[in-house]
Amino acid sequence: YDPGRKLSREEISRLLWAATGVNREEGRRTVPSAMGKYPVDVLVALPEGVYLYEPKGHQMKKVISEDIREMIPKQEGFKKASMTVLYVINKEKTPSGRLEWADLEIGCIGQSLFLEAASLGLGSCIYANVFYETVTKTLGLKENQVLRIAQAVGAAK
């Protein structure tokens, strides 16, 4: 990734909407969710902090003001990505407690994000080699929240 190339607000907006934005009047989103429960929260790590994406209002709510992008991946190559997307499962919203159903949703979100990144000429990669305990603690995730996987997005060198 090219660490000198930040994403524009328009690029971030398009990426997040493609990932899980509301695209129908009744509140359904760009990706499917088992029983329409949407248990996956999308958090975005950017240079100015970490944000929770709120699909209903298509906005981001700041969670912390710290740049944690370099503390997330264990692999050096992902530390320079302009944006790191964190997929967090809210176990209270998961149908029948089935985390694998939320995992399917994450797969759909990740693929939608891949496609939009490609359309914007950006690179992207989903990775599981994450410092889970450190990131979970830094973000103050609750017991019912599970950091499941991450996705790097940015301009390729």
Mean pLDDT across the residues is: 96
Structural class: alpha+beta
Oligomer: single chain
User: Which ranges are low-confidence, i.e. pLDDT below 50, for 5 or more consecutive residues?
Assistant: none
What gyration radius follows from the Cα positions, in whole Å? 15 Å
Total number of beta strands = 6
Query: How much of the sequence is in beta strands?
Result: 25-35%
**Number of alpha- plus pi-helical segments:** 3
Distance between the termini: 5 Å
List the helices and strands and how they pair.
Blueprint: H1 9-20, E1 40-46, E2 49-54, E3 59-64, E4 83-90, H2 99-119, E5 123-127, H3 132-139, E6 145-154
Structure description:
- There is one protein chain.
- This protein is of the alpha+beta class and 157 residues long.
- 26% of the residues lie in helices and 27% in strands.
- The chain contains three helices and six strands.
- It has helices spanning 9-20, 99-119, 132-139, and strands at 40-46, 49-54, 59-64, 83-90, 123-127, 145-154.
- Strands 3-2-1-4-6-5 form a six-stranded antiparallel sheet, with helices on both faces.
- A hairpin with a 4-residue loop joins strand 2 (49-54) and strand 3.
- Helix 1 (9-20) runs antiparallel to helix 2.
- The longest helix is centred in the C-terminal third of the chain and has 21 residues, at 99-119.
- It starts with 8 loop residues before the first helix and ends with a strand.
- The mean pLDDT is 96.
